[in-house]
């Protein structure tokens, strides 16, 4: 039997280890990237030269760094300069700092995330450490609880929730796994199915769902507007979502952005 159930898709596992690894590798990486946390320059190990963290220019002048809008970014709260997906940092570097190819320093800006707010949908307990949450849920699964008994959300902070990949809402997982073709993050891999889970352990191989594509599109829309100083409103987000999903602005066409709870989560996640 496979008592451990993914809380993001319908996959089930024999061991706690495989379950934890699946959630981390396919859904929530538990890594974050902060923009330029060690200042605007770094020392090149081979030449001992001071270089610009954004474009590697030697001895960058203050004007050069101002052009990159380094201080403008640093003045923002840390939460707005921290991203739970690397591609979101790369996007920020392009839109905010005019860096096309990503910075050579990105790996140095990465940190492991150990503290993530979350909740148990079986007994409503809340956690601040991911490992505590996993130990707790594992005990429930050993008692035989099923995801169809899960109530409510995962309790993730909005910025973290927006970074979750290949996921479906927890209250749908129980219903979905009873269907004929259950949504499984690892089964969506296009590679040799005989490799099973192993081929999916490299992130980014699975196709994004339409919902994820919409979220990605709206994240880019908001960041582009913020970078050019255009105010973002509920209406402009909803209209952008409509034209992305349906190709027109007919208000009869409803998207996730027309759901007030989702819109609030999205705006919190984007610091709006
Ligand atoms: Zn999963
Ligand atoms: Zn920045
Ligand atoms: Zn530069
Ligand atoms: Zn619990």
Task: Describe it.
There is one protein chain. A hairpin with a 6-residue loop joins strand 4 (41-43) and strand 5 (50-52). It is globular and about 60 Å long. The strands form four sheets. A three-stranded antiparallel sheet has the order 6-3-7. By secondary structure, the protein is of the alpha+beta class. Mean pLDDT is 81; it is low at 187-206. It contains ten helices and nine strands. The chain has three domains: 4-30 and 113-200, no CATH class; 31-112, no CATH class; 210-269. It has helices spanning 16-26, 62-67, 70-74, 86-97, 130-142, 158-161, 170-177, 210-227, 234-246, 260-269, and strands at residues 4-5, 12-13, 31-34, 41-43, 50-52, 82-83, 110-112, 115-119, 126-129. Bound molecules: zinc ion (4 copies). One zinc ion is lined by residues 52, 54-55, 57, 60, 64, 68.
TL;DR of this structure?
The protein has ten helices and nine strands. By secondary structure, the protein is of the alpha+beta class.
| % residues in beta strands | 5-15%
- First and last CA, distance: 45 Å
Strand order across the biggest sheet? 6-3-7
Percent of residues in helices? 25-40%
Question: What is the string of SSEs from the N terminus onward?
Answer: EEHEEEHHEHEEEHHHHHH
Name the overall outline.
Answer: globular
Going by helix content, strand content and strand pairing, the class is alpha+beta
Mean pLDDT: 81
Q: What's the total count of β strands?
A: 9
Low-confidence stretches: 187-206
Helix count, per DSSP?
10
What small molecules does the structure contain? zinc ion
Main beta-sheet strand count, sense and barrel state = 3 strands, antiparallel
Radius of gyration of CA atoms, rounded to a whole number: 21 Å
Question: What is the total domain count?
Answer: 3
């Amino acid at each position: 039997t496979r008592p451990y159930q993914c809380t993001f898709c319908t996959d089930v596992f024999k061991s706690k280890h495989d379950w934890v690894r699946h959630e981390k590798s396919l859904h929530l990486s538990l890594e974050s990237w902060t923009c330029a946390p060690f200042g605007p320059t770094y020392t090149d190990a081979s030449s001992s030269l001071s270089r610009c963290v954004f474009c590697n220019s030697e001895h960058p002048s203050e004007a050069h760094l101002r052009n990159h809008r380094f201080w403008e970014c640093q003045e923002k709260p840390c939460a707005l300069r921290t991203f739970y997906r690397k591609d979101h940092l790369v996007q920020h570097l392009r839109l905010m700092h005019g860096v096309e190819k990503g910075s050579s320093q990105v790996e140095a800006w990465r940190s492991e995330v150990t503290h993530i707010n979350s909740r148990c949908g079986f007994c409503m307990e809340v956690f601040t450490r991911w490992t505590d949450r996993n130990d707790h849920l594992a005990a429930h699964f050993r008692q035989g609880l099923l995801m169809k008994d899960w109530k409510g959300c995962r309790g993730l902070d909005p910025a973290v929730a927006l970074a979750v990949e290949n996921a479906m809402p927890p209250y749908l997982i129980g219903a979905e796994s009873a269907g004929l073709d259950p949504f499984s993050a690892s089964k969506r891999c296009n590679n040799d199915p005989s490799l099973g889970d192993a081929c999916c352990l490299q992130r980014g191989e699975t196709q994004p769902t339409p919902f994820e594509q919409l979220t990605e599109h709206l994240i880019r829309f908001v960041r582009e507007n913020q970078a050019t100083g255009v105010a973002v409103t509920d209406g402009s987000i909803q209209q952008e979502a409509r034209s992305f999903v349906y190709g027109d602005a007919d208000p009869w066409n409803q998207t996730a952005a027309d759901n007030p709870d989702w819109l609030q989560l999205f705006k919190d996640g984007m610091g709006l």
